[in-house]
Design goal:
There is one protein chain. With 458 residues, this protein is an alpha/beta fold. The protein folds into 3 domains: 125 residues, Rossmann fold (3-Layer(aba) Sandwich); 245 residues, pyruvate-formate lyase- activating enzyme; 58 residues, OB fold (Dihydrolipoamide Acetyltransferase, E2P) (Beta Barrel). Helix content is 34%, strand content 21%. The chain has a 6-stranded parallel beta sheet, with helices on both faces. α8 packs parallel to α9 and α9 packs parallel to α11. Bound molecules: iron/sulfur cluster.
Length: 458
């Protein structure tokens, strides 16, 4: 693009998981050479992308109500606006979108983002929507440009996409396709680029990230543990995380990496979904509640200060009071520092949607309330237990108040403390003075005892 190229404005609205956040940055990257610069204002947008998520309740209806508002905005611009729907709703409901919202120009699934420029060109010529929702065998990552925009002190890096697990309640295997692992060389190159742009912490992303088995330089598949150790060698990369994991793919090498790689943070999101073996079987999770308990023991043996987060579903079809009781017991046994819990809601096309024994809403509400009260208590207790510690905090930027800075502990707690803005991007020691329900406060202090084995700032 030359300076004479007219600037166009691109608005991307993102719902859902961190993978979608990452995908939105890549879509912006791929459109930048066409002259699209970001905007937050729909009135000035030449193109709007809704990057959708299918997981939450009524996701599709929310997309349609947003599309209704965009129809007005497009009309006010005399039709001069490209509207695209991306993400998992696009993948799952492409035909319905074009039928119900004919003012949509582009419908594209998560595997087709690299084709956006070509689709924009085709949309300007076509009558009717341009649709790409198949699962091309080619590596879309090969066709995406190098990361262009800095993501900041903390950055996401997709290493794996898709899932072969087919949990009863989940649309991912249908919307994102089967598992695909990016090769080591590509991941390392992207990680180095992100670090050169200022990232100090990388979160490796994948729908089922610990199923990653990308090809190494030797032509053989590597384990995620080995990849983490390789990335930990990058100078100035202080922290590594990965999400989201499946208990069945937590292999011995990855567990060992938690013990032998200080840059791998002692916080792990490990969804369990239920504490009842009967329901875990109905969910097709492939493990029992005790398998999960034993796995947590092994992880804590490798890294004693490891904190866990999880996902819980209340009221999966067939769930009885006894099954719910088993979930509550598992939560008590494990003790989570954080968690995401949801009422089961049917996703069209998934096996659970048509299973017998659908649980009524009032029962689901009551069970979820009990689960959330317990998880809230556990989170508050975990945060309180940080008070008095001297924690290594990665400073992410200014806080909300003048003179205040914000950062993250190794356990992903947000921390607020007074300090200069020049600390952004550094790992500093902060004496934690108080643990609040959702965050910590502290002061930059003198070391009294080490709380982590994290590498200090380079
Ligand atoms: S492992 Fe995760 S992404 Fe895969 S089907 Fe199960 S819930 Fe969905």
């Amino acid at each position: 693009m030359t300076d004479a190229t007219p600037r166009k404005r691109l608005l991307i609205r993102t719902w859902g998981c961190q993978m979608n956040v990452y995908d939105s940055t890549r879509m912006a990257d791929v459109l930048a050479p066409l002259g699209y610069a970001p905007t937050e204002q729909v009135e000035e947008a030449d193109m709007v992308i809704l990057n959708t998520c299918h997981i939450r309740e009524k996701a599709t209806e929310k997309v349609f109500s947003d599309l209704g508002r965009l129809r007005e905005a497009k009309r006010e611009r005399g039709g001069d606006m490209v509207i695209a729907v991306a993400g998992c709703v696009a993948q799952a409901e492409g035909a319905e979108i074009t039928a119900r919202a004919p003012w949509v120009d582009i419908v594209l699934g998560p595997q087709s983002y690299h084709r956006l420029p070509e689709m924009v060109a085709r949309a300007s010529r076509a009558a009717g929507a341009v649709i790409e929702t198949d699962f091309p065998a080619e590596d879309k990552f090969d066709h995406l440009p190098e990361t262009a925009a800095p993501q900041g002190v903390t950055a996401f890096l997709t290493v794996q996409e898709g899932c072969d697990k087919f949990c009863s309640f989940c649309v991912v295997p249908y919307t994102r396709g089967s598992e695909y692992s990016r090769p080591v060389a590509k991941i390392v190159a992207e990680a180095e680029r992100l670090v050169s742009l200022g990232a100090r912490e990388l979160t490796l992303l994948g729908q089922n990230v610990n199923a990653w088995h990308g090809e190494g330089p030797d032509g053989r598949p590597w384990t995620l543990g080995r990849l983490v150790r390789q990335l930990a060698e990058i100078p100035r990369l202080a922290r590594i995380r990965y999400t989201t994991s499946h208990p069945r793919d937590m292999d011995a090498d990855l567990i060992a990496a938690h013990g032998d790689t200080p840059a791998l943070m002692p916080f792990l999101h490990l969804p369990v979904q239920s504490g009842s073996d009967r329901i875990l079987k109905a969910m097709n999770r492939g493990h029992t509640a005790d398998d999960y308990r034993r796995l947590v023991e092994r992880l804590r043996a490798a890294r004693p200060d490891l904190a866990l987060s999880t996902d819980i579903i209340a009221g999966h079809p067939g769930e009885t009071d006894a099954d719910h009781g088993a979930t509550v017991a598992l939560i008590r046994d494990v003790g989570f520092a954080q968690a995401f819990s949801f009422k089961y809601s049917a996703r069209p096309g998934t096996p659970a949607a048509t299973m017998a024994g659908q649980v009524d809403e009032a029962t689901k509400d009551a069970r979820l309330a009990e689960i959330q009260a317990l998880l809230r208590d556990q989170q508050a207790a975990f945060n309180r237990s940080r008070a008095g510690m001297l924690a290594e905090v990665l400073v992410t930027g200014p806080g909300r108040h003048p003179g205040q800075m914000a950062g993250r502990t190794p356990w992903l707690n947000p921390v607020h403390f007074d300090g200069p803005a020049s600390l952004t991007g550094q790992v500093v020691r902060v004496a934690i003075t108080a643990g609040h329900p959702n965050s910590l406060s502290g002061v930059i202090g003198t070391p009294s005892h080490a709380t982590t084995r994290e590498r200090p700032a380079a």
